[in-house]
Amino acid sequence: MKKALLFLVFGVSLLLGGCVKNELLITSTLSNNSTRTWKLEMLYKNDQAQTLTPGQLIYTKTYKKDNTWEDSDGYKGTYTLPTEKLLKEITTNSSGGSLTIDYTIIKITVESLTVEYTFNQDKYKFVYKL
Questions:
Q1: 85: three-class secondary structure by DSSP
Q2: What is the pLDDT of residue 62?
Q3: Secondary structure class of 55 (helix, strand, coil)
Q4: pLDDT in tens, 40-99
Q5: What is the distance between the alpha carbons of residues 101 and 111, in angstroms, rounded to a whole number?
Q6: CATH number, domain containing residue 83
Q7: For FRET with 124, which of 21, 39, 60, 106 sits at 20 to 30 Å CA-CA?
Q8: How many domains does the chain have?
């Protein structure tokens, strides 16, 4: 019985430790352990590539180590990573009050970030590059 309990505790510790490690890795990739600015490269609506408007061509989003973000449109807020595939952003200066968006992280590397979310039954995918 003691061995089974020991293995169970060890297994749960490894699982939880792995989740924390992955979250730290994603946070450090997102913010570069300080500040990282991502530039919008592509936008898809329901898997169809969209032509970027002049404003979208210069759109950037900056993530900071202190779990805050801001974009080139003047919006800002906070973010959390509840899981390694979920980026939760709260816009704190939205005209209608705070706004929460849950993005699914499709891909994150040191040079690219792809996230998507669904709004009014439409799926939007954003591809950012450094």
A1: coil
A2: 97
A3: helix
A4: 999 999 999 999 999 999 999 999 999 999 999 999 999 999 998 999 999 999 998 899
A5: 23
A6: 2.40.128.540
A7: 21
A8: 1
